[in-house]
């Protein structure tokens, strides 16, 4: 589960964790530079975030996963699916302009 811009995972998903954890193994990180998460690199793009989350899940032994995302997390989820198609099984994007055009 990937939170939106300006938030953190605890604040964004506090009401969903109880019921969802009964049916799913949940991984709910603070994206880098949000909440108490940080990195010593200046890179702050959605691509960098996607790489960090996907590589983190791989290190935890997660071989395949679905991503639920809100707002800014939707951009990160999109890049995770683009960059790691063998890892990402499904993507849910809520309230995000990832597919928006000028029209």
Description:
The protein has helices at 9-13, 17-20, 46-59, 72-83, and strands at residues 65-70, 88-94. It has 103 residues and is of the alpha+beta class. The chain has a single domain, classed as 3-Layer(aba) Sandwich (Rossmann fold). The protein contains four helices and two strands, in the order H-H-H-E-H-E. Strands 1-2 form a two-stranded parallel ribbon. It is 34% helix and 13% strand.
Low-confidence stretches: none
Helix content: 25-40%
Number of strands: 2
How do the SSEs run, as a string of H and E? Answer: HHHEHE
> What's the number of domains?
1
**Euclidean distance between termini CA atoms:** 29 Å
Strand percentage: 5-15%
- CATH architecture level-2 label: 3-Layer(aba) Sandwich
The best one-word shape is: globular
User: How many helix segments?
Assistant: 4
Largest sheet: 2 strands, parallel
CATH class: Alpha Beta
Give the spatial strand order of the biggest sheet: 1-2
CATH topology: Rossmann fold
Radius of gyration: 13 Å
* Global structural class: alpha+beta
Quote the average pLDDT.
92
**CATH homologous superfamily title:** Alpha/Beta hydrolase fold, catalytic domain
Can I get a quick summary?
This is AB hydrolase-1 domain-containing protein. With 103 residues, the chain is an alpha+beta fold.
Write the SSE topology:
Elements: H1 9-13, H2 17-20, H3 46-59, E1 65-70, H4 72-83, E2 88-94
Parallel strand pairs: 1-2
Helix pairs in contact: 3-4
Question: Key features?
Answer:
two-stranded parallel sheet, AB hydrolase-1 domain-containing protein, AB_hydrolase_1, 4 helices, 103 residues, AB_hydrolase_fold, Meta-cleavage_hydrolase, Rossmann fold
């Amino acid at each position: 589960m990937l939170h939106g811009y300006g938030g953190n995972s605890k604040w964004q998903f506090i009401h969903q964790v109880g019921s969802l954890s009964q049916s799913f193994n949940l991984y709910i990180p603070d994206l880098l530079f949000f909440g108490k998460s940080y990195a010593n690199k200046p890179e702050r793009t959605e691509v960098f975030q996607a790489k960090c989350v996907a590589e983190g899940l791989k290190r935890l032994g997660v071989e395949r996963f679905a991503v639920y995302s809100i707002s800014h997390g939707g951009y990160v989820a999109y890049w995770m699916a683009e960059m790691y198609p063998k890892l990402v099984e499904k993507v849910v994007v809520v309230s995000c302009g990832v597919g928006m055009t000028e029209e």
